[in-house]
C-alpha cells in the first residue's frame, strides 16, 4: 500500500519537477549563435530584403566599368582624359537607404585598375587634403617633396552623375512587396555639358512576408 | 476503542522528512531557473554604454532574437533623447535589418503558427505603425547628420510600411512621414519634390499650411505615451489598441525668442495603430480560439458521457464491467481533448513599443540660426497648461538649417513586463 502511494507520488511529481525547471526556458530564446563566415559579395546570401545589396553593387559597378572601357570617347583618346567619379552628383531618389560611396568608390577603383593609363582619375573628394599639403609646402613648413610643385591642381574633363530611383508596389492580400530599382550613370563633359556616355542598371526584387507579419 | 487512522494522512506524516526535502528541491529549482547570469565579457560591453541605457542593453542580451527589434526600438529612442545619435542610429539600423529580413520557415514562426504556442512566440517585428516609426527616427537622425537623401529614403520607406492597412482610406496616410519627405527635399534644394510631397500632406490634412520655401528650421514636439496593445476576446485572440495611459497633454506651443506660436499636430500615432485593420494572423488566432473552444466542449462532453457510463454500469450487471472499461477509455479521450484545449494557445501578441509618443507636432520657420532660443510648453485640448512637464530637448544648428526636438515624456523608463527575470551579473 505504502509502495503504491510512493509510486503514484513519483509519477505525478517527477514530470512537474522537470516542467518547473524548464518551463521558463521555453519563453527565452537561448539558441546558439553562428560563427561568422566569409560569403561571396556577389552571392545573394542569407539575409535578403528588397533593397540594394552587395551583389547588386558588385554587378552594377562591374557592368559600368566594362562599358566605360569600351567607349572610345572616354578610353580611346590619344591623351588620357581626366575623369571625376564620386557620389557628389549621384542622387538617391529611391526608398532604399544606401551609402552611395559604395557604388562610386567601387566603380572608380575598378576603372583605375583596369584602364591602364587610358584614363586619369581626379580625387576631387580629397581636394581639402591636397589644398592643405600645397599650403604647407608653399609656407615652407614642409619641403617640396620629390615631384616638385604644380601651379594648379588638375582640372577635370568629365564627371560622373547619376540617379538611384525606385518604384514600390505592394499586394495587400498576399503581403508581397516588390521594389524596382533603376540606377542611371552618365558621364558629363565639363565644358559643354554634353552627356558623352550613359548606361543604367536595373533590377526588381519581390518578397512575401510570413503570414505572422502581414 | 481505537481510532481508525486515515491511510493517506498517515503516509504523509510517516514520511514527512522525505516530503520536506522534496519541497526544498522544488523551491530551489524554481529559484535557479529565474536568475540569468550575464557573462563577464557581455557585462563589460554593457558597461561601456551610457548609464541610462544599460538596463535596456541587459534586456536585449537576455531576451535575444525574439525581442531584438523591440529592445532596439526602446534603446534607439532613449539614445536619441540622450543626444547619442550614433548609438540611436545603430539601434534603429539593426532593427531595420531584422524587419527587412523576410522570415520564412524559422522555428519561431512555425511555433507561433502552431496550435500550442501563442503568437508571442514569434520574433517581434512590430506592427506597421511601429515599423514606420523606426524609419521616422532614422530619418530624423539622417536629417541631423545632413544626409538629406537618406533621410528622404527613410521617410519614404516608413510610408510604405503603412501600405498594409486593410481599409483603403488608411493606406499610406502617415502624413508626418510624407511631410518630412518634403522637408528633406526642401533642405537639399529639390523644390519640385518638396511641393509634391506637401500637396500629398494637404490631401490628408486639409488645414495644413505649406512651409515657405525659405523656411530652414524645423521644430518637432512629441507628446503623450505610446499606444497600447491588449488581447481581448475568446482566448485573448483579438488584438486591440488603446490610447496610452496617464497623460493629458496633446497640444504644444513653441516659444521662439519669447514669441509664442501654436504647433501643428501633424500625426496621431494612436490613430495610426488603431486604423491598421485586421491582420492575416488574426485568422490563425481565431482558428486556434475555435479549436480551443471545440476541444474544451468535446472534453466536457466526453467526460460527462464517461461519468454517466460509470454511474449506470453497476445497473448493467455483467455488461457493466465492459461499460465501465469503455467509459474509462472515453474518460481518457475526454481528458486528452480537455488537455488539448487547455494547452492550445490563441493569445495575440501584445508586445509593443513602449516609449513611442502619442502625437507628433511640428512647426517650421526661417531663421538665421545665430541667436535662437526655443522652448516647448504643453497643454491639453481645453487649453490647460502642464508647466511641470519638463521637456527633453535636442537642438542641432547648422548652416543649412536648424532642428529642435522636444518630448513631454521621458523615454528612459521602459518597464518590461513580458517576463519575470531577475537580472544579475554576479
What features would you describe in this structure?
The complex is a heterodimer of chains A (214) and B (426). Chain A has 214 residues and is an alpha/beta fold. Chain A is built from five helices and six strands; from the N terminus they run H-H-H-E-E-H-E-H-E-E-E. In chain A, a hairpin with a 5-residue loop joins strand 5 and strand 6. About 4% of the residues of chain A have low confidence. Chain B has 14 helices and twelve strands. In chain B, the strands form four sheets. A five-stranded mixed sheet of chain B has the order 7-8-2-11-10. In chain B, helix 3 runs antiparallel to helix 4, helix 5 runs antiparallel to helix 6 and helix 6 runs antiparallel to helix 8. The N and C termini of chain B lie far apart (62 Å). Chains A and B meet through helix 1 of A and helix 1, helix 2, helix 7, helix 9 and helix 13 of B.
In brief, what are we looking at here?
Chain A is an alpha/beta fold and 214 residues long. Chain A contains five helices and six strands, in the order H-H-H-E-E-H-E-H-E-E-E.
